Amino acid sequence: MSSAIRYLNQFKIFLIICFYSLTLIGIFLLVDKYIYENQTKKELLNSSVDMLNNSKQFSDGYFKSKEKLVTSISKSQAFNDYLSEVTIYKDNIKDLFLTIARNQNDIMQIRFIDNNGMEKVRVDRKNFGDKAKLVRYKNLQDKSNRYYFTSDLNKKDEIWFSNLDLNMEKGKVQVPFVPTVRIIKPIYGANSFNGIIIINFFAKTFLDQLVQSSLYDIVIFDLIQM
Q: For 1-226, which CATH superfamily applies?
């Protein structure tokens, strides 16, 4: 009888040991899962912060390069000779616009619009990578009613960017849709507004690079319009 009791006690001890062992294993697995999940969340959070910082740096660099471009045009000898209305220099500005557009495939248009809102010089590229071409005088348009000309921002000698927009021609949205961003530089003479330099850029490549991510779906929206 004592032998049976001894075996029973040993079995109880074995069950207790198994119970505590399984409990410890369960606790270990839960703790490990908690730590792993939190570590994973921390790594994902750090990754998203790094991605946002990289996107911001890319965006800042992109827009800064466009500012430098339009500033260099406004300060160029060819452009200022054109503003001086010296006849012998009137074609230099066209050559300048063409050269710049042909060396930057993301440029859709470069224009100078006078103080009445009329296009005076315009270089066009229909699609990304196409050859840029000078627009004939008879095809130049009146842009005096467009927001980028009438905006109060044009009353200040500051460079500004439009919202992301769809390109329009002759009052209609271009189809297929062509996302574009514009940079505008008001031009002033001796206390007088002479017009604007405006450059349209194809925005698709910029947007594709900006939202590129293997971990996240990124959505861009305009807070101003909400």
A: PAS domain (3.30.450.20)
